[in-house]
Amino acid sequence: MSFDIQSYKEKLQKALQDKNFSFVLKGSISTAITLFFVQGLRFISGVLIGRFYGADASGKLTLVVTVMGFFAILINFGIKEALQKLIPELREKYNIKTAYSIFIKGNILILGFSIIAAIILYFIAPWLAHYWDEPNMVHIFRASGFFLPFFVLGELNYFSLRAALKIHTANMSLVLPTIFRLVLLLLVTYFFFNVYNPIYLHWVTLCILPWLFTLMPIYKHFHQPAKAEATITKTQHQQILNIALPMLMTYVAFMINNSADVFILKANNISTDLVGIYKTCTNISMLAATLLVALNTTVQPKITQLYTQQNYDEVQRIAVKSSKLIFLLSLPIFIILLFASKYVMWLYGEEFMKGAISLSILTIGQVFNTLCGPVAQVLNATGYHKQFRNISFLGMAINLLVNVILIPLYGIQGAAIANTISMIFWNVVGTIYIKRTFGFYVAYIPFINLNKK
Questions:
Q1: CA of 264: how far to CAs of 60, 137, 342, 398, 433, in Å?
Q2: Tens of pLDDT along 123-157?
Q3: Mean per-residue pLDDT over the chain, rounded
Q4: Which of 93, 165, 375, 438 is most deeply packed, by most CB within 10 A?
């Protein structure tokens, strides 16, 4: 046993001496700890909502989150993703002031899109309430429009900090709002119980507070350093939009993947409580991908930096090592969600146990997602975002087709199968495209060296 411990110590020390991989490793671990903490508190919040408010309230919250998520993607317009590429690229080529100027232009674009989105949501709210047979939610949908700009700008600040390689600072901006959410949920449930409390808390603690908590770090790590530097080159809104539009199309495809199932389930007269149970399953399955998310948000700015330096061998090495690391660390979570799904769902309440099979199916998709590694990040960071857009749209088409076929037959389990098939498809196709373009597999398969020469 002592030999094994010593062996692991030596491997860790060797990894930490590797400058580029050390950054990815430390950033990923920091982000993973943050995300597990945040997801753990959200899991507890979800259990409390399920236990005290019931599946119907979870379903109403799902509808609000789905609508806001749809409009947030349209407001973002791919700008968040574009800045993840542009900020490290411009900082590497020029200086922080240039990177900061493109960040400000991104904020201006998003504010303009937010006003348009809020107006549209105000007028279509009655149709949404009628479509989902929730007539009392018209004012809820309309009020959601007010919180959209805070939600999107908070995300933009968070990912811009990560793009500026301020990983630990960005992570801290996630923690406090989540703590506030759990504390406030306990207080309002005990003292001011209302069926819409989960929605009100979503607006305050997941929209306004994350934006507020990123303002000071943005000022400290972005605005102040930029003031001390001279302008090297001017940036234009068009620089963002040229990259943002293909990325918007990609995220529209993912948005449809993530929300079309809700629309199709409701169109097939699946009750709101079952929809809430299904979306609870999708949220839990995302726990299996927490480490992948942690890695992806850390590795993309580093790959962009290395690719800008034309250090292509290092891009391959970092991408492949990252895939292996994340799968091995995620394995225990996969095992729990695959083989103990019934007990996981029981934590939310007995009625949620109807989603146990769906949770296991969705977890299979996350296994493939993790095995294939940072596919989207490699393609987006290296300028192949249009090609990834095309792959995403093919995945979306498959998702819609399989949802339409299987939901009438199998309900929420059919939606889970469609989600999983789509996820496997775009990950595998993306992996093959990277191999053909760059000459290496980014995926990791245990005991098989895919890149052996």
A1: 16, 19, 25, 14, 31
A2: 998 998 888 778 888 888 898 888 988 988 888 88
A3: 80
A4: 375
The angle, 0 to 180 degrees and rounded to 10, between the axes of the packed helices 79-93 and 96-131 is: 180
Only one residue has tokens 């950054």, namely 23
Enclosing H/E stretch for 49: helix 19-52
Q: Residue 189 to residues 34, 48, 53, 180: CA-CA distances in angstroms?
A: 26, 9, 9, 14
What is the Cα–Cα distance from 144 to 200, expressed in whole angstroms? Answer: 9
Nearest Cα residue to 263 out of 393, 418, 403, 148: 403
Is residue 391 within 8 Å of 337, Cβ to Cβ? Answer: no
Residue pair 87/225 in contact by the 8 Å Cβ criterion: no
Between the CA of residue 126 and those of 7, 116, 140, what are the distances in Å?
63, 18, 10
Residues whose CB falls within 8 Å of the CB of residue 431, separated by 6 or more in sequence, listed in order? 372, 373, 375, 441, 442, 443
Distance separating alpha carbons of residues 104 and 111, to the nearest angstrom: 11
Closest CA to 281 of 207, 342, 203: 342
Assess contact for 72 and 120: CB atoms under 8 A: no
Residue listed under structure tokens 């596919």: 375
* Tens digit of each residue's pLDDT (9 = 90 or more) over 32-82: 777 778 877 877 887 888 778 877 777 788 888 888 888 887 787 778 877
Q: Which positions ≥6 away from 199 have C-beta within 8 Å?
A: 60, 61, 64, 140
Q: Which position has the token pair 């490290």?
A: 88
Residue indicated by tokens 């076929």: 405
Provide the β-strand partners of residue 445. Answer: 448
Six-digit token pair at 163?
């793009």
Task: Say how many residues make up the chain.
Answer: 453
CA 60, CA 279: separation in Å to the nearest integer?
11
DSSP state for residue 219 in the 8-state scheme: I
Greatest alpha-carbon span in the chain: 67
CA 67 to chain centroid, in Å, comes to: 16
Q: How many helices (H) and strands (E) does the chain have?
A: 19, 0
Instruction: Supply the pLDDT for residue 213.
Output: 85
Taking a C-beta distance cutoff of 8 angstroms, is the pair 322, 295 a contact? yes
**CB 419 within 8 Å of CB 404:** no
Nearest CA among 160, 24, 152, 165 for reference residue 84: 160
Rounded to whole angstroms, the Cα distance separating 9 from 5 reads 6
Q: Which residues contact 290 (CB under 8 A, 6 or more apart)?
A: 32, 35, 36, 39, 330, 333
- The answer on pLDDT for 1 being more than 50 is no
Task: Indicate the burial class of 36 (C-beta count within 10 angstroms; 0-12, 13-18, 19 or more).
Answer: middle
